[in-house]
Amino acid sequence: MNDKNEPKRYKSVLTGPVTTTEPEFLHDIGMDRMVGAFVALASEVYILRYRLGALETVLANNKTIAEDAIEALEETPEQSQARQDDVQRFVTRVLSELHRSDVPISHIGRKVREMTDE
Amino acid sequence: MSADRANTPFGLETTREYRAFHTFLSAARNHRLGPLYEQTHADYRRTGGNGSSADPDAVLDVLDTLPAYQLYAWAMRHLQQFKYDHADLGIVPAIEENKTELRQRLRDLSDQGIEAGDLVLDPDLALPDYFTMTDFHQHPGGVAGDPLAGLAYEMARAVRFKPGADSNNLYRNIFSYLPKRDYRRVLDWGTSFGAGVRTWLDLHPDTEAHGVDLSEPCLRLAYVRAAERNMTAHWRQADLEHLPYEDAGFDLAWFAFMLHEFPPARFPALFKEAARVLNETGVFVGFELAYVENSPFQNALQDQEGWLNDEPFMPACFKTDFAKLFRDAGFSNITIRRFDQMADNVTHSSPDTPQRQTWNIYLAEK
Fold first, then answer.
1. Is position B124 within any domain?
2. What does the pLDDT profile of chain B (366 residues) look like in tens digits?
3. Domain housing B167
4. Most buried of the four, A42, B130, B228, B351, by CB within 10 Å?
5. B141 contacts in A (CB within 8 Å)?
6. Which residues of B touch A89 (CB under 8 A)?
7. In this structure, are B250 and B187 located in the same domain?
8. How many domains does chain B have?
9. Which residues of A88-114 are buried (b: 16+ CB within 10 A; e: fewer)?
Protein backbone atom coordinates (compact mmCIF):
# COMPACT_ATOMS: atom_id res chain seq x y z
CA MET A 1 0.00 0.00 0.00
CA ASN A 2 1.30 3.45 -0.86
CA ASP A 3 2.07 5.81 1.97
CA LYS A 4 0.53 9.17 1.08
CA ASN A 5 3.38 10.98 2.84
CA GLU A 6 6.03 9.27 0.72
CA PRO A 7 7.01 11.16 -2.45
CA LYS A 8 5.85 9.36 -5.57
CA ARG A 9 8.61 7.41 -7.28
CA TYR A 10 9.16 8.06 -10.97
CA LYS A 11 11.52 6.45 -13.45
CA SER A 12 12.79 9.58 -15.15
CA VAL A 13 10.95 12.58 -13.73
CA LEU A 14 12.70 14.37 -10.84
CA THR A 15 10.92 15.74 -7.78
CA GLY A 16 13.83 17.60 -6.20
CA PRO A 17 17.51 18.51 -6.64
CA VAL A 18 20.10 15.83 -7.35
CA THR A 19 22.06 15.63 -4.08
CA THR A 20 23.51 12.12 -3.99
CA THR A 21 24.04 10.02 -7.12
CA GLU A 22 23.25 10.55 -10.79
CA PRO A 23 19.69 9.57 -11.77
CA GLU A 24 19.05 7.08 -14.58
CA PHE A 25 16.79 8.54 -17.27
CA LEU A 26 16.75 6.04 -20.12
CA HIS A 27 14.39 3.17 -19.37
CA ASP A 28 12.16 2.86 -22.39
CA ILE A 29 14.22 3.64 -25.48
CA GLY A 30 13.82 0.50 -27.56
CA MET A 31 16.65 -1.50 -29.09
CA ASP A 32 15.33 -0.71 -32.58
CA ARG A 33 15.95 2.96 -31.97
CA MET A 34 19.36 2.36 -30.40
CA VAL A 35 20.41 0.23 -33.39
CA GLY A 36 19.04 2.92 -35.68
CA ALA A 37 21.30 5.48 -34.02
CA PHE A 38 24.31 3.16 -34.27
CA VAL A 39 23.66 2.54 -37.97
CA ALA A 40 23.27 6.27 -38.56
CA LEU A 41 26.58 6.86 -36.77
CA ALA A 42 28.24 4.08 -38.79
CA SER A 43 27.01 5.68 -42.01
CA GLU A 44 28.56 8.98 -40.92
CA VAL A 45 31.87 7.22 -40.22
CA TYR A 46 31.72 5.65 -43.68
CA ILE A 47 31.04 9.04 -45.28
CA LEU A 48 34.22 10.34 -43.63
CA ARG A 49 36.13 7.21 -44.79
CA TYR A 50 34.82 7.65 -48.34
CA ARG A 51 35.79 11.31 -48.49
CA LEU A 52 39.21 10.65 -46.96
CA GLY A 53 39.86 7.97 -49.60
CA ALA A 54 38.75 10.37 -52.32
CA LEU A 55 41.04 13.05 -50.92
CA GLU A 56 44.01 10.66 -50.92
CA THR A 57 43.27 9.79 -54.55
CA VAL A 58 43.02 13.45 -55.57
CA LEU A 59 46.32 14.23 -53.84
CA ALA A 60 48.03 11.24 -55.50
CA ASN A 61 46.59 12.08 -58.93
CA ASN A 62 47.87 15.64 -58.55
CA LYS A 63 51.27 14.28 -57.50
CA THR A 64 50.92 16.15 -54.22
CA ILE A 65 51.72 12.90 -52.43
CA ALA A 66 53.02 9.54 -53.66
CA GLU A 67 50.40 6.86 -54.21
CA ASP A 68 51.67 4.81 -51.27
CA ALA A 69 52.53 7.81 -49.13
CA ILE A 70 50.08 6.95 -46.34
CA GLU A 71 51.10 3.28 -46.10
CA ALA A 72 54.79 4.04 -46.52
CA LEU A 73 54.82 6.71 -43.84
CA GLU A 74 57.49 6.10 -41.23
CA GLU A 75 56.97 8.32 -38.24
CA THR A 76 59.74 9.77 -36.17
CA PRO A 77 59.79 8.62 -32.54
CA GLU A 78 58.22 11.96 -31.58
CA GLN A 79 55.47 11.62 -34.17
CA SER A 80 54.89 8.04 -33.07
CA GLN A 81 54.59 9.15 -29.46
CA ALA A 82 52.15 11.91 -30.47
CA ARG A 83 50.07 9.29 -32.30
CA GLN A 84 50.08 7.03 -29.24
CA ASP A 85 49.00 9.93 -27.03
CA ASP A 86 46.25 10.80 -29.49
CA VAL A 87 44.82 7.29 -29.60
CA GLN A 88 44.93 7.10 -25.82
CA ARG A 89 42.97 10.37 -25.54
CA PHE A 90 40.50 9.08 -28.12
CA VAL A 91 39.93 5.82 -26.25
CA THR A 92 39.59 7.64 -22.95
CA ARG A 93 37.02 10.07 -24.32
CA VAL A 94 34.83 7.24 -25.60
CA LEU A 95 35.27 4.48 -23.04
CA SER A 96 35.28 6.71 -19.96
CA GLU A 97 31.59 7.36 -20.62
CA LEU A 98 30.88 3.67 -20.03
CA HIS A 99 32.29 3.81 -16.53
CA ARG A 100 31.47 7.41 -15.65
CA SER A 101 31.06 7.83 -11.90
CA ASP A 102 27.50 8.20 -10.66
CA VAL A 103 28.65 10.96 -8.32
CA PRO A 104 27.47 14.23 -9.93
CA ILE A 105 30.23 16.50 -11.24
CA SER A 106 28.45 19.38 -9.54
CA HIS A 107 27.40 19.36 -5.92
CA ILE A 108 24.22 20.39 -4.13
CA GLY A 109 24.19 20.12 -0.35
CA ARG A 110 21.37 18.01 1.12
CA LYS A 111 20.26 21.04 3.15
CA VAL A 112 19.39 22.83 -0.09
CA ARG A 113 16.35 20.58 -0.51
CA GLU A 114 14.80 22.30 2.54
CA MET A 115 15.43 25.73 0.97
CA THR A 116 13.59 24.91 -2.24
CA ASP A 117 10.07 25.13 -0.78
CA GLU A 118 8.19 28.11 -2.07
CA MET B 1 46.36 23.88 -26.14
CA SER B 2 48.16 26.89 -24.76
CA ALA B 3 47.18 29.92 -22.77
CA ASP B 4 46.97 33.27 -24.46
CA ARG B 5 50.05 35.32 -24.92
CA ALA B 6 50.59 38.61 -23.13
CA ASN B 7 49.45 40.86 -26.01
CA THR B 8 46.16 39.06 -26.66
CA PRO B 9 42.89 39.22 -24.72
CA PHE B 10 42.91 37.09 -21.60
CA GLY B 11 41.62 33.59 -22.21
CA LEU B 12 42.27 30.09 -23.35
CA GLU B 13 43.57 29.41 -26.85
CA THR B 14 41.48 26.40 -27.76
CA THR B 15 42.38 23.59 -30.15
CA ARG B 16 40.48 22.72 -33.30
CA GLU B 17 39.35 19.50 -31.56
CA TYR B 18 37.95 21.49 -28.65
CA ARG B 19 36.06 23.78 -31.00
CA ALA B 20 34.76 20.87 -33.07
CA PHE B 21 33.59 19.08 -29.92
CA HIS B 22 31.72 22.12 -28.60
CA THR B 23 30.22 22.82 -32.02
CA PHE B 24 28.84 19.28 -31.95
CA LEU B 25 27.50 19.74 -28.41
CA SER B 26 25.80 22.97 -29.41
CA ALA B 27 24.09 21.21 -32.32
CA ALA B 28 23.03 18.36 -30.01
CA ARG B 29 21.57 20.92 -27.61
CA ASN B 30 19.63 22.53 -30.44
CA HIS B 31 18.28 19.11 -31.36
CA ARG B 32 17.00 18.75 -27.79
CA LEU B 33 15.38 22.18 -27.87
CA GLY B 34 13.87 21.65 -31.32
CA PRO B 35 12.96 18.20 -32.69
CA LEU B 36 13.27 16.31 -29.39
CA TYR B 37 11.09 18.80 -27.53
CA GLU B 38 8.54 18.66 -30.38
CA GLN B 39 8.51 14.85 -30.23
CA THR B 40 8.08 14.92 -26.46
CA HIS B 41 5.12 17.26 -26.80
CA ALA B 42 3.55 15.24 -29.62
CA ASP B 43 3.93 11.98 -27.67
CA TYR B 44 2.57 13.63 -24.55
CA ARG B 45 -0.57 14.70 -26.39
CA ARG B 46 -0.95 11.35 -28.16
CA THR B 47 -0.50 9.39 -24.94
CA GLY B 48 -3.23 11.20 -23.07
CA GLY B 49 -1.78 14.48 -21.89
CA ASN B 50 -4.49 16.97 -22.82
CA GLY B 51 -2.50 20.06 -21.97
CA SER B 52 -5.13 21.47 -19.68
CA SER B 53 -4.89 19.30 -16.58
CA ALA B 54 -4.68 21.33 -13.41
CA ASP B 55 -2.84 18.50 -11.68
CA PRO B 56 0.93 18.80 -12.23
CA ASP B 57 1.39 15.18 -11.12
CA ALA B 58 -0.82 14.05 -14.01
CA VAL B 59 1.66 15.64 -16.43
CA LEU B 60 4.60 13.99 -14.69
CA ASP B 61 2.83 10.61 -14.81
CA VAL B 62 2.68 10.86 -18.61
CA LEU B 63 6.13 12.39 -19.12
CA ASP B 64 7.76 9.69 -17.03
CA THR B 65 6.73 6.99 -19.48
CA LEU B 66 7.78 8.72 -22.71
CA PRO B 67 11.04 7.55 -24.35
CA ALA B 68 11.33 10.98 -25.98
CA TYR B 69 11.12 12.68 -22.60
CA GLN B 70 13.64 10.26 -21.10
CA LEU B 71 16.10 11.16 -23.84
CA TYR B 72 15.24 14.85 -23.37
CA ALA B 73 16.04 14.55 -19.64
CA TRP B 74 19.24 12.62 -20.32
CA ALA B 75 20.34 15.21 -22.90
CA MET B 76 19.49 18.14 -20.62
CA ARG B 77 21.62 16.80 -17.80
CA HIS B 78 24.41 14.99 -19.62
CA LEU B 79 25.14 17.33 -22.53
CA GLN B 80 25.81 19.98 -19.89
CA GLN B 81 28.16 17.56 -18.15
CA PHE B 82 29.89 16.86 -21.47
CA LYS B 83 30.31 20.61 -21.94
CA TYR B 84 31.90 21.16 -18.55
CA ASP B 85 33.66 17.91 -17.79
CA HIS B 86 34.17 15.54 -20.74
CA ALA B 87 37.62 13.91 -20.65
CA ASP B 88 40.16 16.46 -21.95
CA LEU B 89 37.65 18.38 -24.10
CA GLY B 90 35.33 19.77 -21.42
CA ILE B 91 35.72 23.41 -20.39
CA VAL B 92 37.05 22.64 -16.92
CA PRO B 93 39.76 20.13 -17.93
CA ALA B 94 40.76 22.32 -20.88
CA ILE B 95 41.32 25.23 -18.49
CA GLU B 96 42.92 22.95 -15.91
CA GLU B 97 45.63 22.05 -18.41
CA ASN B 98 46.72 25.69 -18.48
CA LYS B 99 45.64 26.78 -15.03
CA THR B 100 49.00 27.94 -13.67
CA GLU B 101 49.62 30.46 -16.42
CA LEU B 102 45.97 31.53 -16.67
CA ARG B 103 45.58 32.04 -12.91
CA GLN B 104 48.74 34.13 -12.76
CA ARG B 105 47.72 36.24 -15.74
CA LEU B 106 44.20 36.84 -14.40
CA ARG B 107 45.61 37.85 -11.03
CA ASP B 108 48.22 40.16 -12.58
CA LEU B 109 45.69 41.86 -14.85
CA SER B 110 42.92 42.21 -12.25
CA ASP B 111 45.26 43.37 -9.48
CA GLN B 112 45.67 46.50 -11.60
CA GLY B 113 41.98 47.13 -11.02
CA ILE B 114 42.38 46.67 -7.27
CA GLU B 115 45.28 49.13 -7.24
CA ALA B 116 43.24 51.64 -9.25
CA GLY B 117 40.27 51.25 -6.90
CA ASP B 118 37.96 50.04 -9.70
CA LEU B 119 37.78 46.50 -8.32
CA VAL B 120 37.01 46.09 -4.62
CA LEU B 121 37.08 42.56 -3.23
CA ASP B 122 36.04 41.53 0.26
CA PRO B 123 38.23 38.71 1.58
CA ASP B 124 36.13 38.56 4.76
CA LEU B 125 32.83 38.18 2.92
CA ALA B 126 30.80 35.25 4.26
CA LEU B 127 29.27 33.68 1.17
CA PRO B 128 25.61 32.64 1.76
CA ASP B 129 25.07 28.94 2.32
CA TYR B 130 22.67 28.60 -0.64
CA PHE B 131 25.51 29.85 -2.84
CA THR B 132 28.30 27.70 -1.43
CA MET B 133 26.10 24.58 -1.28
CA THR B 134 24.91 24.71 -4.89
CA ASP B 135 26.98 24.24 -8.04
CA PHE B 136 24.48 26.14 -10.19
CA HIS B 137 23.84 24.84 -13.73
CA GLN B 138 26.17 21.89 -12.97
CA HIS B 139 29.29 24.06 -13.00
CA PRO B 140 31.78 21.83 -11.12
CA GLY B 141 32.80 23.67 -7.96
CA GLY B 142 30.39 26.52 -8.71
CA VAL B 143 31.09 29.97 -10.13
CA ALA B 144 33.28 30.96 -7.20
CA GLY B 145 35.04 27.69 -6.45
CA ASP B 146 38.19 28.15 -8.53
CA PRO B 147 40.12 31.30 -9.44
CA LEU B 148 39.29 30.54 -13.09
CA ALA B 149 35.59 29.78 -12.47
CA GLY B 150 34.64 33.10 -14.10
CA LEU B 151 36.51 32.17 -17.27
CA ALA B 152 34.84 28.74 -17.29
CA TYR B 153 31.43 30.37 -16.87
CA GLU B 154 32.14 32.83 -19.70
CA MET B 155 33.18 29.97 -22.00
CA ALA B 156 30.08 27.98 -21.05
CA ARG B 157 27.78 30.92 -21.71
CA ALA B 158 29.34 31.50 -25.12
CA VAL B 159 27.74 28.30 -26.43
CA ARG B 160 24.43 28.66 -24.58
CA PHE B 161 22.56 30.82 -27.04
CA LYS B 162 21.36 29.86 -30.46
CA PRO B 163 24.03 29.82 -33.19
CA GLY B 164 24.85 33.30 -34.42
CA ALA B 165 22.94 35.05 -31.65
CA ASP B 166 24.64 37.89 -29.80
CA SER B 167 24.51 36.74 -26.18
CA ASN B 168 24.53 40.36 -24.98
CA ASN B 169 21.39 41.14 -26.95
CA LEU B 170 19.35 40.20 -23.90
CA TYR B 171 20.71 43.24 -22.04
CA ARG B 172 19.75 45.55 -24.88
CA ASN B 173 16.30 43.94 -24.72
CA ILE B 174 16.06 44.76 -21.00
CA PHE B 175 17.20 48.35 -21.50
CA SER B 176 14.58 48.85 -24.22
CA TYR B 177 11.91 48.56 -21.51
CA LEU B 178 13.27 51.44 -19.43
CA PRO B 179 11.22 54.62 -19.04
CA LYS B 180 12.95 57.48 -20.87
CA ARG B 181 15.05 59.13 -18.20
CA ASP B 182 18.57 60.31 -17.60
CA TYR B 183 20.21 57.36 -15.85
CA ARG B 184 23.56 58.68 -14.66
CA ARG B 185 24.59 56.11 -12.03
CA VAL B 186 23.59 52.50 -12.61
CA LEU B 187 24.06 49.11 -10.94
CA ASP B 188 24.25 45.63 -12.49
CA TRP B 189 22.71 43.54 -9.67
CA GLY B 190 24.53 40.19 -9.90
CA THR B 191 26.93 41.25 -12.64
CA SER B 192 28.89 37.99 -12.96
CA PHE B 193 31.67 38.68 -15.49
CA GLY B 194 30.25 42.07 -16.38
CA ALA B 195 28.60 41.56 -19.77
CA GLY B 196 25.62 43.72 -18.74
CA VAL B 197 27.84 46.59 -17.63
CA ARG B 198 29.83 46.50 -20.86
CA THR B 199 26.63 46.48 -22.91
CA TRP B 200 25.30 49.44 -20.90
CA LEU B 201 28.54 51.40 -21.36
CA ASP B 202 28.49 50.69 -25.09
CA LEU B 203 25.12 52.47 -25.19
CA HIS B 204 25.80 55.10 -22.50
CA PRO B 205 29.55 55.71 -22.33
CA ASP B 206 29.27 58.88 -20.24
CA THR B 207 27.48 57.28 -17.30
CA GLU B 208 28.87 55.72 -14.12
CA ALA B 209 28.35 51.95 -14.15
CA HIS B 210 28.77 49.60 -11.19
CA GLY B 211 28.64 45.83 -10.99
CA VAL B 212 28.19 43.81 -7.81
CA ASP B 213 28.47 40.06 -7.33
CA LEU B 214 29.42 37.38 -4.81
CA SER B 215 32.01 35.73 -7.03
CA GLU B 216 35.59 37.00 -6.90
CA PRO B 217 36.64 34.96 -9.99
CA CYS B 218 33.81 36.50 -12.01
CA LEU B 219 34.54 40.02 -10.81
CA ARG B 220 38.24 39.73 -11.60
CA LEU B 221 37.30 38.67 -15.13
CA ALA B 222 34.71 41.48 -15.34
CA TYR B 223 37.42 44.04 -14.59
CA VAL B 224 39.79 42.50 -17.17
CA ARG B 225 37.15 42.35 -19.91
CA ALA B 226 36.19 46.01 -19.37
CA ALA B 227 39.85 47.07 -19.32
CA GLU B 228 40.45 45.22 -22.59
CA ARG B 229 37.81 47.49 -24.12
CA ASN B 230 39.17 50.63 -22.42
CA MET B 231 36.02 50.90 -20.34
CA THR B 232 36.02 52.19 -16.80
CA ALA B 233 33.52 50.60 -14.46
CA HIS B 234 33.30 49.91 -10.75
CA TRP B 235 33.21 46.34 -9.46
CA ARG B 236 32.39 45.27 -5.89
CA GLN B 237 32.27 41.86 -4.25
CA ALA B 238 29.32 41.76 -1.88
CA ASP B 239 26.24 39.86 -0.79
CA LEU B 240 23.22 41.41 -2.52
CA GLU B 241 21.43 41.38 0.84
CA HIS B 242 24.08 43.74 2.23
CA LEU B 243 25.09 46.10 -0.56
CA PRO B 244 28.16 48.25 0.12
CA TYR B 245 26.56 51.42 -1.25
CA GLU B 246 25.00 54.49 0.32
CA ASP B 247 21.23 55.04 0.44
CA ALA B 248 19.52 56.33 -2.72
CA GLY B 249 22.71 56.49 -4.77
CA PHE B 250 21.56 54.81 -7.99
CA ASP B 251 19.13 55.80 -10.75
CA LEU B 252 18.82 52.26 -12.06
CA ALA B 253 19.57 48.66 -11.10
CA TRP B 254 19.05 45.70 -13.44
CA PHE B 255 19.29 41.93 -13.33
CA ALA B 256 19.23 39.10 -15.85
CA PHE B 257 18.33 35.48 -15.01
CA MET B 258 19.10 36.14 -11.32
CA LEU B 259 15.89 35.46 -9.41
CA HIS B 260 16.00 31.67 -9.81
CA GLU B 261 19.38 31.59 -8.08
CA PHE B 262 17.88 32.54 -4.69
CA PRO B 263 15.93 30.47 -2.15
CA PRO B 264 12.51 32.13 -1.89
CA ALA B 265 13.06 33.00 1.77
CA ARG B 266 15.80 35.46 0.74
CA PHE B 267 13.67 37.60 -1.59
CA PRO B 268 12.26 40.09 0.98
CA ALA B 269 15.71 41.08 2.25
CA LEU B 270 17.19 41.15 -1.26
CA PHE B 271 14.51 43.45 -2.69
CA LYS B 272 14.48 45.78 0.34
CA GLU B 273 18.22 46.21 -0.07
CA ALA B 274 17.86 46.93 -3.78
CA ALA B 275 15.18 49.53 -2.97
CA ARG B 276 17.44 51.13 -0.36
CA VAL B 277 20.23 51.94 -2.83
CA LEU B 278 17.87 53.33 -5.51
CA ASN B 279 16.94 57.01 -5.38
CA GLU B 280 13.36 58.35 -5.22
CA THR B 281 12.80 57.88 -8.95
CA GLY B 282 14.99 54.79 -9.17
CA VAL B 283 14.08 51.87 -11.42
CA PHE B 284 14.67 48.16 -10.76
CA VAL B 285 14.32 46.11 -13.93
CA GLY B 286 15.14 42.59 -15.05
CA PHE B 287 13.83 39.35 -16.45
CA GLU B 288 13.40 35.77 -15.41
CA LEU B 289 11.87 32.54 -16.69
CA ALA B 290 8.18 32.27 -15.87
CA TYR B 291 5.31 29.82 -15.92
CA VAL B 292 2.80 29.91 -18.76
CA GLU B 293 -0.81 30.32 -17.64
CA ASN B 294 -2.88 27.15 -18.18
CA SER B 295 0.06 25.27 -19.71
CA PRO B 296 0.89 22.45 -17.30
CA PHE B 297 3.04 20.67 -19.91
CA GLN B 298 5.43 23.59 -20.36
CA ASN B 299 5.41 24.34 -16.65
CA ALA B 300 6.21 20.76 -15.68
CA LEU B 301 9.03 20.78 -18.19
CA GLN B 302 10.38 24.05 -16.79
CA ASP B 303 10.31 22.59 -13.26
CA GLN B 304 12.15 19.53 -14.54
CA GLU B 305 14.83 21.69 -16.13
CA GLY B 306 15.44 23.26 -12.73
CA TRP B 307 16.03 19.88 -11.11
CA LEU B 308 17.94 18.48 -14.09
CA ASN B 309 20.39 21.36 -14.41
CA ASP B 310 21.12 21.92 -10.71
CA GLU B 311 18.98 25.04 -10.45
CA PRO B 312 17.21 23.87 -7.28
CA PHE B 313 15.42 27.15 -6.55
CA MET B 314 13.92 27.54 -10.00
CA PRO B 315 10.63 25.66 -9.37
CA ALA B 316 9.94 27.80 -6.30
CA CYS B 317 10.86 30.95 -8.25
CA PHE B 318 8.12 30.16 -10.78
CA LYS B 319 5.54 30.13 -8.00
CA THR B 320 6.66 33.35 -6.31
CA ASP B 321 4.43 36.44 -6.17
CA PHE B 322 7.01 39.00 -7.22
CA ALA B 323 4.54 41.89 -7.44
CA LYS B 324 3.83 41.56 -3.72
CA LEU B 325 7.53 41.27 -2.90
CA PHE B 326 8.35 44.43 -4.85
CA ARG B 327 5.50 46.30 -3.15
CA ASP B 328 6.58 45.11 0.29
CA ALA B 329 10.13 46.22 -0.47
CA GLY B 330 9.02 49.80 -1.12
CA PHE B 331 8.43 49.92 -4.87
CA SER B 332 5.14 51.54 -5.89
CA ASN B 333 4.78 51.30 -9.66
CA ILE B 334 5.22 47.67 -10.67
CA THR B 335 4.84 46.24 -14.17
CA ILE B 336 5.16 42.54 -14.99
CA ARG B 337 4.72 41.37 -18.55
CA ARG B 338 5.84 38.72 -20.98
CA PHE B 339 9.38 39.28 -22.23
CA ASP B 340 8.92 37.99 -25.73
CA GLN B 341 12.12 39.59 -27.09
CA MET B 342 14.08 36.96 -25.18
CA ALA B 343 12.67 34.38 -27.55
CA ASP B 344 14.85 35.93 -30.28
CA ASN B 345 17.95 34.75 -28.44
CA VAL B 346 17.14 31.07 -28.02
CA THR B 347 16.41 28.06 -30.20
CA HIS B 348 12.77 27.54 -31.13
CA SER B 349 10.64 24.54 -31.80
CA SER B 350 8.22 24.62 -34.73
CA PRO B 351 5.28 27.08 -34.60
CA ASP B 352 2.90 24.11 -34.16
CA THR B 353 4.40 23.28 -30.78
CA PRO B 354 3.87 25.53 -27.75
CA GLN B 355 6.90 27.58 -26.82
CA ARG B 356 9.12 25.60 -24.47
CA GLN B 357 9.98 28.51 -22.20
CA THR B 358 8.61 31.96 -21.48
CA TRP B 359 10.04 34.89 -19.60
CA ASN B 360 8.65 37.81 -17.65
CA ILE B 361 10.19 41.24 -17.45
CA TYR B 362 9.83 43.00 -14.11
CA LEU B 363 9.88 46.78 -13.90
CA ALA B 364 9.59 48.25 -10.41
CA GLU B 365 9.77 51.99 -9.73
CA LYS B 366 10.15 53.70 -6.37
1. no
2. 444 445 689 999 998 889 888 988 988 888 898 889 999 999 998 887 765 556 778 899 999 999 999 999 999 999 999 999 998 999 999 999 999 999 999 999 999 999 999 999 999 999 999 999 999 999 999 999 999 999 999 999 886 665 556 778 899 999 999 999 999 999 999 999 999 999 999 999 999 999 999 999 999 999 999 999 999 999 999 999 999 999 999 999 999 999 999 999 999 999 999 999 999 999 999 999 999 888 889 999 999 999 999 999 999 999 999 999 999 999 999 999 998 877 766 666 677 788 888 899 999 999
3. 162-365
4. B130
5. 106
6. 87-88
7. yes
8. 2
9. eeeeebeeeeeeeeeebbbbbbeebee
